[in-house]
Design a protein that fits this description.
alpha/beta; TIM Barrel; eight-stranded parallel β-sheet; 8 strands; 44% helix
Amino acid sequence: MFIDTHCHLNMMVTKKPDELLCNESFIIIEHIVNQAEQAGVCSIINVGTGINESLNSVAVARRCSHVYATVGIHPEDVSQYAHQSIQASLAPLRELLVHKEENKIVAIGEVGLDFFHTPYDKQLQIDFFKAQIELALEYQLPLTIHIREAGDEVMKVLEEYSHDGIRGVIHCFLQNESLAQTILSWGLYVGLDAPITYPKNNDLRELFKKIPLERILLETDAPFLPPQQYRGKQNTPAYIPLIAAALAALRDIDTAVVEDVTTANAQKLFFGK
Protein backbone atom coordinates (compact mmCIF):
# COMPACT_ATOMS: atom_id res chain seq x y z
CA MET A 1 0.00 0.00 0.00
CA PHE A 2 1.09 3.57 -0.72
CA ILE A 3 1.27 6.61 1.55
CA ASP A 4 0.59 10.14 0.30
CA THR A 5 2.96 12.03 2.57
CA HIS A 6 1.82 15.54 1.60
CA CYS A 7 -1.59 16.77 0.53
CA HIS A 8 -4.12 19.45 1.43
CA LEU A 9 -7.50 17.76 1.74
CA ASN A 10 -8.97 20.92 3.27
CA MET A 11 -8.08 22.96 0.19
CA MET A 12 -9.70 20.41 -2.09
CA VAL A 13 -13.14 21.19 -0.69
CA THR A 14 -13.18 24.78 0.58
CA LYS A 15 -13.77 27.85 -1.55
CA LYS A 16 -11.68 30.27 0.52
CA PRO A 17 -8.26 29.87 2.19
CA ASP A 18 -8.27 29.38 5.95
CA GLU A 19 -11.98 28.59 5.99
CA LEU A 20 -12.90 26.20 8.79
CA LEU A 21 -14.50 23.04 7.51
CA CYS A 22 -18.24 22.41 7.70
CA ASN A 23 -19.94 19.03 7.92
CA GLU A 24 -20.57 18.94 4.17
CA SER A 25 -16.84 19.40 3.57
CA PHE A 26 -16.00 16.49 5.85
CA ILE A 27 -18.35 14.26 3.85
CA ILE A 28 -16.60 15.18 0.59
CA ILE A 29 -13.18 14.60 2.17
CA GLU A 30 -14.24 11.16 3.37
CA HIS A 31 -15.20 10.35 -0.23
CA ILE A 32 -11.76 11.51 -1.46
CA VAL A 33 -10.05 9.38 1.20
CA ASN A 34 -12.14 6.34 0.20
CA GLN A 35 -11.23 6.83 -3.46
CA ALA A 36 -7.57 6.96 -2.51
CA GLU A 37 -7.86 3.77 -0.49
CA GLN A 38 -9.46 2.01 -3.47
CA ALA A 39 -6.45 3.13 -5.53
CA GLY A 40 -4.09 1.54 -3.00
CA VAL A 41 -3.24 4.57 -0.87
CA CYS A 42 -3.50 3.31 2.70
CA SER A 43 -2.59 6.53 4.55
CA ILE A 44 -2.65 10.27 3.86
CA ILE A 45 -0.73 12.99 5.66
CA ASN A 46 -2.80 16.17 5.55
CA VAL A 47 -0.64 19.27 5.83
CA GLY A 48 -1.36 22.47 7.77
CA THR A 49 -0.38 25.86 6.34
CA GLY A 50 -1.63 28.23 9.05
CA ILE A 51 -3.62 28.19 12.27
CA ASN A 52 -7.04 27.50 10.77
CA GLU A 53 -5.67 25.05 8.23
CA SER A 54 -3.82 23.25 11.03
CA LEU A 55 -7.07 23.06 12.98
CA ASN A 56 -8.72 21.68 9.85
CA SER A 57 -5.92 19.19 9.37
CA VAL A 58 -6.31 17.85 12.89
CA ALA A 59 -10.10 17.74 12.59
CA VAL A 60 -9.87 15.67 9.40
CA ALA A 61 -7.31 13.32 10.95
CA ARG A 62 -9.48 12.74 14.00
CA ARG A 63 -12.47 12.00 11.78
CA CYS A 64 -10.79 9.79 9.14
CA SER A 65 -8.95 6.71 10.35
CA HIS A 66 -6.44 6.69 7.47
CA VAL A 67 -5.53 10.40 7.68
CA TYR A 68 -2.82 12.01 9.82
CA ALA A 69 -2.07 15.69 10.43
CA THR A 70 0.78 18.15 10.36
CA VAL A 71 0.55 21.61 11.91
CA GLY A 72 2.52 24.69 10.94
CA ILE A 73 2.57 28.13 9.36
CA HIS A 74 3.56 28.32 5.69
CA PRO A 75 6.18 30.94 4.80
CA GLU A 76 3.75 32.74 2.48
CA ASP A 77 1.35 33.16 5.40
CA VAL A 78 3.66 34.47 8.12
CA SER A 79 2.82 38.12 7.34
CA GLN A 80 -0.67 37.48 8.74
CA TYR A 81 0.94 37.15 12.17
CA ALA A 82 3.33 40.12 12.02
CA HIS A 83 1.17 42.09 14.48
CA GLN A 84 2.17 39.83 17.37
CA SER A 85 5.17 37.90 18.61
CA ILE A 86 6.13 34.64 16.98
CA GLN A 87 5.56 32.74 20.22
CA ALA A 88 2.05 34.20 20.49
CA SER A 89 1.43 33.21 16.88
CA LEU A 90 2.54 29.64 17.55
CA ALA A 91 0.55 29.29 20.77
CA PRO A 92 -2.48 27.66 19.06
CA LEU A 93 -0.16 25.09 17.51
CA ARG A 94 1.29 24.31 20.93
CA GLU A 95 -2.22 23.67 22.21
CA LEU A 96 -2.65 21.06 19.49
CA LEU A 97 0.81 19.58 20.09
CA VAL A 98 0.24 19.04 23.79
CA HIS A 99 -2.14 16.27 22.66
CA LYS A 100 -0.20 15.30 19.54
CA GLU A 101 -1.05 11.58 19.80
CA GLU A 102 -4.79 12.15 20.15
CA ASN A 103 -4.63 14.76 17.39
CA LYS A 104 -2.66 12.35 15.17
CA ILE A 105 0.02 14.98 14.51
CA VAL A 106 3.03 13.41 12.80
CA ALA A 107 5.06 16.46 11.71
CA ILE A 108 5.53 20.22 11.89
CA GLY A 109 4.76 21.77 8.53
CA GLU A 110 4.41 23.18 6.05
CA VAL A 111 7.29 25.45 7.03
CA GLY A 112 10.27 26.93 5.23
CA LEU A 113 11.04 29.88 2.96
CA ASP A 114 9.34 31.23 -0.17
CA PHE A 115 10.79 34.22 -2.00
CA PHE A 116 8.76 33.77 -5.19
CA HIS A 117 5.79 36.08 -4.61
CA THR A 118 6.57 39.71 -3.81
CA PRO A 119 6.51 41.52 -1.55
CA TYR A 120 7.78 39.26 1.22
CA ASP A 121 9.49 39.81 4.54
CA LYS A 122 12.66 37.70 4.36
CA GLN A 123 13.65 38.07 8.00
CA LEU A 124 10.15 37.33 9.26
CA GLN A 125 10.05 34.14 7.20
CA ILE A 126 13.44 33.08 8.55
CA ASP A 127 12.40 33.82 12.14
CA PHE A 128 9.20 31.77 11.79
CA PHE A 129 11.12 28.95 10.12
CA LYS A 130 13.64 28.77 12.97
CA ALA A 131 10.93 28.95 15.63
CA GLN A 132 9.07 26.06 14.02
CA ILE A 133 12.24 23.99 13.66
CA GLU A 134 12.71 24.46 17.40
CA LEU A 135 9.08 23.47 17.93
CA ALA A 136 9.72 20.26 16.01
CA LEU A 137 12.78 19.52 18.12
CA GLU A 138 10.86 20.22 21.31
CA TYR A 139 8.04 17.85 20.39
CA GLN A 140 10.34 15.32 18.70
CA LEU A 141 8.60 15.56 15.34
CA PRO A 142 9.93 15.69 11.77
CA LEU A 143 9.58 18.74 9.54
CA THR A 144 7.80 19.18 6.22
CA ILE A 145 9.93 21.85 4.55
CA HIS A 146 8.91 24.16 1.71
CA ILE A 147 11.50 25.77 -0.59
CA ARG A 148 10.71 28.17 -3.43
CA GLU A 149 13.33 30.49 -4.86
CA ALA A 150 15.12 30.21 -1.50
CA GLY A 151 17.39 27.17 -1.66
CA ASP A 152 20.55 28.82 -0.35
CA GLU A 153 18.72 30.57 2.49
CA VAL A 154 16.94 27.38 3.57
CA MET A 155 20.25 25.53 3.63
CA LYS A 156 21.82 28.20 5.83
CA VAL A 157 19.00 27.84 8.34
CA LEU A 158 19.02 24.04 8.30
CA GLU A 159 22.80 23.94 8.70
CA GLU A 160 22.40 25.71 12.06
CA TYR A 161 20.34 22.75 13.27
CA SER A 162 22.05 19.95 11.33
CA HIS A 163 23.70 18.60 14.48
CA ASP A 164 20.61 18.91 16.67
CA GLY A 165 18.80 15.82 15.43
CA ILE A 166 16.43 17.46 12.98
CA ARG A 167 14.38 15.05 10.87
CA GLY A 168 12.16 15.74 7.94
CA VAL A 169 11.53 16.00 4.22
CA ILE A 170 12.12 18.68 1.62
CA HIS A 171 8.64 18.83 0.15
CA CYS A 172 8.21 18.72 -3.67
CA PHE A 173 11.93 18.56 -4.31
CA LEU A 174 12.82 20.72 -7.34
CA GLN A 175 16.33 21.71 -6.28
CA ASN A 176 19.75 20.89 -7.72
CA GLU A 177 21.98 17.87 -7.15
CA SER A 178 24.37 19.73 -4.84
CA LEU A 179 21.58 20.73 -2.50
CA ALA A 180 20.19 17.20 -2.66
CA GLN A 181 23.50 15.68 -1.61
CA THR A 182 23.79 18.04 1.34
CA ILE A 183 20.32 17.43 2.73
CA LEU A 184 20.75 13.68 2.23
CA SER A 185 23.99 13.87 4.24
CA TRP A 186 21.94 15.42 7.05
CA GLY A 187 19.57 12.46 7.02
CA LEU A 188 16.63 14.31 5.46
CA TYR A 189 14.30 12.90 2.82
CA VAL A 190 13.16 14.32 -0.51
CA GLY A 191 9.53 14.51 -1.59
CA LEU A 192 8.66 13.38 -5.12
CA ASP A 193 5.56 14.85 -6.76
CA ALA A 194 3.96 14.75 -10.19
CA PRO A 195 6.29 17.34 -11.81
CA ILE A 196 8.46 14.31 -12.56
CA THR A 197 5.83 13.49 -15.22
CA TYR A 198 5.99 16.92 -16.89
CA PRO A 199 7.76 16.87 -20.29
CA LYS A 200 10.04 19.83 -19.57
CA ASN A 201 11.51 18.36 -16.38
CA ASN A 202 14.34 16.27 -17.82
CA ASP A 203 16.83 17.54 -15.25
CA LEU A 204 14.50 16.53 -12.43
CA ARG A 205 14.15 13.05 -13.89
CA GLU A 206 17.91 12.70 -14.18
CA LEU A 207 18.31 13.75 -10.54
CA PHE A 208 15.75 11.21 -9.30
CA LYS A 209 17.66 8.46 -11.05
CA LYS A 210 20.52 9.18 -8.65
CA ILE A 211 18.77 9.85 -5.32
CA PRO A 212 18.68 6.65 -3.22
CA LEU A 213 15.21 5.15 -3.22
CA GLU A 214 15.53 4.80 0.56
CA ARG A 215 15.47 8.61 0.86
CA ILE A 216 12.40 9.31 -1.33
CA LEU A 217 8.84 9.95 -0.18
CA LEU A 218 5.82 10.07 -2.50
CA GLU A 219 3.55 13.15 -2.39
CA THR A 220 0.69 14.61 -4.39
CA ASP A 221 0.45 18.12 -2.91
CA ALA A 222 -3.22 17.83 -3.90
CA PRO A 223 -5.13 19.82 -5.02
CA PHE A 224 -2.02 21.22 -6.73
CA LEU A 225 0.44 19.70 -9.25
CA PRO A 226 -1.62 16.95 -10.91
CA PRO A 227 0.15 14.33 -13.06
CA GLN A 228 0.68 15.21 -16.72
CA GLN A 229 -2.41 13.35 -17.94
CA TYR A 230 -4.58 15.38 -15.54
CA ARG A 231 -3.01 18.82 -16.03
CA GLY A 232 -5.64 21.53 -15.64
CA LYS A 233 -7.67 19.40 -13.23
CA GLN A 234 -7.59 18.99 -9.48
CA ASN A 235 -4.96 16.66 -8.09
CA THR A 236 -5.98 13.97 -5.58
CA PRO A 237 -4.26 11.40 -3.32
CA ALA A 238 -5.56 8.60 -5.54
CA TYR A 239 -2.90 9.61 -8.09
CA ILE A 240 0.03 8.54 -5.91
CA PRO A 241 0.39 5.23 -7.84
CA LEU A 242 0.91 7.25 -11.05
CA ILE A 243 3.87 9.05 -9.45
CA ALA A 244 5.24 5.72 -8.24
CA ALA A 245 4.90 4.23 -11.73
CA ALA A 246 6.74 7.20 -13.26
CA LEU A 247 9.64 6.75 -10.81
CA ALA A 248 9.70 2.99 -11.41
CA ALA A 249 9.86 3.48 -15.19
CA LEU A 250 12.61 6.05 -14.76
CA ARG A 251 14.76 3.68 -12.71
CA ASP A 252 13.74 0.55 -14.65
CA ILE A 253 12.40 -1.23 -11.58
CA ASP A 254 9.03 -2.68 -10.67
CA THR A 255 6.43 -0.29 -9.26
CA ALA A 256 5.99 -2.70 -6.34
CA VAL A 257 9.58 -1.97 -5.30
CA VAL A 258 8.88 1.77 -5.27
CA GLU A 259 5.69 1.08 -3.31
CA ASP A 260 7.43 -1.05 -0.67
CA VAL A 261 10.47 1.18 -0.15
CA THR A 262 8.73 4.56 -0.14
CA THR A 263 6.05 3.27 2.22
CA ALA A 264 8.74 1.99 4.58
CA ASN A 265 10.47 5.38 4.35
CA ALA A 266 7.27 7.19 5.32
CA GLN A 267 6.57 4.81 8.17
CA LYS A 268 10.07 5.35 9.53
CA LEU A 269 10.00 9.15 9.31
CA PHE A 270 6.45 9.91 10.40
CA PHE A 271 5.44 6.90 12.48
CA GLY A 272 8.71 5.64 13.94
CA LYS A 273 8.29 2.17 12.48
